[in-house]
Amino acid sequence: MEHVPPPAEELARLDRELAELDARRAQLLTRRAWLLAALRPPAPTAAPGWNPSAWGAPPSGRPGAPAQPWGYVPKQPSAPRSAQNVLLTLGGLLLAVAAVAFTLVSWGSMGIGGRSAVLAAVTLGALIAPAVLLRRGLAATAEALAALALVLTLLDVYAVHAVAAPDTDGLGFTAVASAVLSVLWTAYGLALGKLRLPLPAAVVLAQWPLLFWAWAAGAPALVVGWALLATAVLDGVIARWGKGPGVRVTACVGGSAMGFSALMVGLALSTTASGPLGAAGPGALLLAAAAAALAGAWRAPKGFARTGGVVAGLAAVAAVGGVPAAALSDGWRVLAYLLCGLALTGVVRAGLPRDAARGVLAASGAVVAGALVWALPSLAAVLLGPVTLLSDVWAGSPEGFRSALGSTLPWSELAAAPVVLALVAGLLGSAYRWWPSVVRIAAPLGAREETPKPDAASSAAGTPGAAWTAPPRAGAPWYTVAGAGARRRPSGAALRGAAGAGALALGWGALLLAGVVLDVPYAVAVAGETALVGGLLALAVRGAGSGRGASAVPVTALVGAVSGAVSVGLLSLASEGAAYAVFGALTVLFAGAAVRVGAEVPRAVFAVASVVWGTVLTGFAGRSLDLDPHEAAPLVLLVPALTVLLGARLRRNPVALPVELTGALGALVAVGLAVSDAPFLALVLALCGVLAAGVAVRPERRPVAGYLAAALFVLATWVRLAASEVSFPEAYTLPVTVPALVVGVLRRRGDPEASSWTAYGPGLAATLLPSLTVAWTDADWLRPLLLGVAALVITLLGARHRLQALLVLGGVVLALDGLHELAPYVAQVAGVLPRWLPPALAGLLLLVVGATYEQRLRDARRLKDALGRMR
Kindly report the CA angle at 369 between 364 and 373, in degrees rounded to 5? Predict the structure, then answer.
């Protein structure tokens, strides 16, 4: 049937569809108007030209346009600027190639006078032509000839060196020539101010005089660095006061390249210096580079100022830290740089511009981060090193902490690692402790970069800028903020929490590394790590129960406690006594933390960890008793049994479910241990079924635990039968069928309207179908006979009690079983009969069915109705 909506609903639907059509029509009309405007020719922007000597017909014009006078010639549009530039560039390039070929190839066929005259004339013409062209407004052509003039001046210099001074040093001559050409092109560019190429070209030429002079003089690397730095400073001056964006951009690029090269030279010399005196010279170069970068950042825009501050800070650290680092061993040099990096934080009191000071602070943070990156691999080795003990559990207590780690790191060269971590942890902890003072000191650097104008409402309320600080309205897009220029920054509480979390994590790592560097005895290392886990648990419990909500410090303590517990647990595997002591202590500590903590999530984490440590203890008990893995499997089920009891005690507490799931994982471990022995596997599965049945007693767990218990019991029965080499399928299926039928009877008593398929179908199918499958391949007569009797009884019960599932299943199985018994005889009779008889019988059957088709159809419908009335 087609559903006809009520009139009100249909009217609303029609209104919506009409509104959509109107909107679409408006959209199409708007597009049509735009297309018409695009197709209409543009109106002329200049007065039409008049050529009296032109003879021809007057222009027709478009319809409606005013008639033009006879002799009118429309003004042709000029060629696109891009095509003009391409043509001029190609022309200038070809002329330059011709000049180079003339100079290098045809030079020797002319005398000295002729050669000089030709080059001088061509160069002079190329230099004068742009001035003439500029006066006539041909700027692009003038630029092309200026580029040609630049190439010609370079060729002049080459010619002078090849003819007039062939014996002079090439590098020295190049230095002088580049300086002279830079000055000449600067003067030429200033004289012809409309040309955009000469001044940037002069800046490019100015990059090489000092560098080539240093190379020509055979100066040491330090002098080369000073030459690079002086060039970079010159570029900075040009970038600050140069004329035009092209000059400034070129100077910025050149200054960046030269300055970076100078810094790399100074850093390489400083790090490879043989002593403090040897590092003083490169340090002076780096300090000068830092001063130059800071001077450039003083009045630069925001992005350049911060970049300059970063470069200045890093250069200052490399300069000052390189002097004491040259006197220290390789393992302690990082500490000298770290102290210098931390000293950069004093920039907040130096009165620098805000952006430059932020760049210096970013450099300080980069130095600290680099020191931490240097130290953290050793901490990772301490935490993950005990994994090697898994291959040889309880092999014996090692002598020291290092030998238990199995790591090949050069610990003598990492002696400064715990000091680095402790120093940074102490500073972060101090900031966390005295956070208000830190905020007050850093307040000048945290000022807003621009204060937007207050709106009328905020001004009336007496709170200027209130619209800027207000949060965006609900439902606003992500890019919408209240006020222009506003930007979300981490809150003070979040920054303080991050500082506290960093202090806690680094302090914990410093203590671990200190034990490895000192190579404390194995027992002291195990006891110390366990004590650290206890301390972290105490901090996590205290922070989570303080009522201040989630914080970075208790979360870090929680993560550190779990990580430390795993590490010390692996470390304790070297000794049997240490393993029992550590895992017993961990079980008690985490269980106590779960009892004391107030927040739900930490409590669940602590409880789950306690269950895991307890499960490991039961595994240790089996190993101590010299039991095989499958024999130790029942012992592992002790902890899952305790979790079942604890879950019954906690009831609907949020911690109950994680604890029970962890216990279920322990039971799964027990099953895995018993897989190698079938009888023990059946026992373990049965015990797991008992535990699941105990959980199913609780109403809130019954829907899942009940089915799980039944499956485990059935699986245990099957495993036990397979272990006893029982091959009859009924032995496997009847233990499933009988309980399923009992449950079905109880279901029908409680709900007489329940379907027989739901109540009895699964149980009957579990036995009848496997038995029927085996009966078809069984040559004996006993199983088909028993199966046929059982199917007949089931069919009669279904007909007697009007149960559809019993009638259908029993009838189908009985028919197929009977067909199996008659098949040999049918085959024997078919072999005796003539071959024409089966087709004849089939045709006769079709004729009979066709003749009585209506009657058979009515019989089928009556049978369908009869089955449909059954349950």
Answer: 150
- What dihedral do alpha carbons 841, 845, 850, 854 form, nearest 10°? 170
Residues 397, 377 contacting (CB under 8 angstroms):
no
336, 286 contact by CB (below 8 A):
no
How many residues would you count in the chain?
871
What is d(CA 145, CA 131) in angstroms, rounded to the nearest whole number? 10
Q: Are 815 and 823 in contact (CB under 8 A)?
A: no
Please give the mean pLDDT across all residues of the chain. 78
Q: Of 77-81, 804-808, 859-863, where does mean pLDDT reach its minimum? A: 77-81
Please give the full DSSP string across 226-295, using - where no structure is assigned: HHHHHHHHHHHHHHHH-SSHHHHHHHHHHHHHHHHHHHHHHHHHHHT-SSHHHHHHHHHHHHHHHHHHHH
CB atoms inside a 10 Å sphere around CB 356: 29
Structure confidence at residue 455 (pLDDT): 41
Write out 784-800 in H/E/C secondary structure. Answer: HHHHHHHHHHHHHHHHH
Most confident of 536-550, 638-652, 716-730: 638-652
Cα–Cα distance measured from residue 203 to residue 186, given in angstroms and rounded to the nearest whole number: 8
H or E stretch covering 214: helix 209-216
Residue 49 has pLDDT above 70, yes or no: no
Please answer whether residues 175 and 216 qualify as being in contact, where contact means their C-beta atoms are separated by less than 8 angstroms: yes
> What's the token pair of residue 467?
């619209």
List, as one string, the DSSP characters of 336-371: HHHHHHHHGGGGGGTT--HHHHHHHHHHHHHHHHHH
Adjacent-strand bridge partners of 400 = 521
DSSP annotation string for 489-548: ---HHHHHHHHHHHHHHHHHHHHHHHHHHHT-BHHHHHHHHHHHHHHHHHHHHHHHTSSS
pLDDT digits (tens, 9 = 90+) for 631-642: 899 999 999 999
| Structural contact between residues 365 and 384, judged by C-beta atoms closer than 8 angstroms | no
Q: Cα(22)–Cα(29) distance, rounded to whole angstroms?
A: 11
- The confidence band for 36, taking pLDDT boundaries of 50, 70 and 90, is confident
Query: What DSSP line would sit under 643-697, residue for residue?
Result: HHHHHHHHTT-TTHHHHHHHHHHHHHHHHHHHTT-HHHHHHHHHHHHHHHHHHHT
Residues 612 and 668 sit within 8 Å (Cβ to Cβ): no
172, pLDDT greater than 50: yes
Angle at 769 between CA 765 and CA 775, to 5 degrees: 150
438-492 pLDDT, tens digit each? 788 777 666 444 444 444 333 333 333 333 333 444 333 333 333 334 455 667 7
Whether the CB-CB separation of 266 and 282 falls below 8 Å is answered with yes
Is residue 137 helix, strand or coil? coil
How many helical (H) and strand (E) elements, i.e. helices and strands, does the chain have?
34, 0
CB 579 within 8 A of CB 572: yes
Q: Which two tokens stand for residue 817?
A: 């079983």
Return d(Cα 145, Cα 135) in angstroms, integer. Answer: 14
Classify the phi-psi angles of 802: left when phi > 0, otherwise alpha if psi is within -120 to 50, otherwise beta. Answer: left
Alpha-carbon Rg of the chain, whole angstroms? 47
Percentage with pLDDT > 90 across the chain: 25
Which CA distances in Å does 178 have to 234, 235, 336?
Answer: 15, 15, 42
- CA distances to 82, 93, 135 from 195, in Å: 18, 18, 12
Query: How far is Cα of residue 483 from the mean position of the Cα atoms in its chain?
Result: 32
Query: Is residue 571 within 8 Å of 529, Cβ to Cβ?
Result: yes
Check if the beta carbon of residue 106 is closer than 8 Å to that of residue 155. Answer: no
* Spatial separation of the C-alpha atoms in residues 397 and 576, rounded to whole Å: 9
How many angstroms separate the CA atoms of 422 and 101, rounded? 69
